Automatic annotation (TrEMBL):
InterPro entries: AAA+_ATPase, ABC_AA/LPS_Transport, ABC_transporter-like_ATP-bd, BCA_ABC_TP_C, P-loop_NTPase. Residues 1-242 form the ABC transporter domain. GO terms for cellular component: plasma membrane. It comes from Caldanaerobacter subterraneus subsp. pacificus DSM 12653. Keywords: ATP-binding, Nucleotide-binding, Transport. This is ABC-type sugar (Aldose) transport system, ATPase component. One of its GO terms (molecular function) is ATP hydrolysis activity.
Amino acid sequence: MEFGGLKAVDSLSFSVKKGEIYGLIGPNGAGKTTVFNCISRFYNPTSGRIIFEGKEITKLEPHEIIRVGISRTFQNVELFKHMTVLENLLVGQIAFTKENILSAAFMLPSVKKEEKRIRDKAMEILRILNIEDKAHEYAVTQPYGVQKLVEIGRALVSEPRLIMLDEPAAGMNHSETDELAKLILKLRDEFGITILLVEHDMSLVMNICENICVMNFGKKICEGPPEKVKSDPAVIEAYLGGEEIA
């Protein structure tokens, strides 16, 4: 991926297995979020291919990426200010309703049934996130950790098979991060969702990821299980300036 001749992502290649929690790490500016933006089609890659479940998705539109089973969160939480926690999730489900606009305009019985299904589904997601008691409170008034969970909830409403989490632990305290780790494991173990994780909290990454890809200046410098990555000299030098990874 190039921007005005500058290679933000350079000849990067990695594979994520179904049901895996896979980490993508590296120093600031390494190109991690650019990778997410390419996969989710916010950027058009200048070269290479992106394959999901055996099919190329490089040329799809962003809304088509969601429909094939991929969703993501963002580094910066951007919730609808005048909506409740529940409403923020409901907005995320509009694109996946089965009813057309004409049916909705006349509020046909099928629309009411679909509306109930959507609301029940959103509440179930809030229960999974353990924030169902916040459903009818304004999202932006919640603690930052809860707002991050709402962001994850919005990514879950499309029932993805792959969810890309972009620094989900940023701004969280230790207790919130521990709960986040349990949630990510739950999404994989109980719901079969594959996780691609960009994160700066190395303790979180090393504890829950089966494999990790390390980037620096747009290139992959190491890939493998945590034990291999944390002891790799190139990773130690590039990522922590020569200090060993805890």
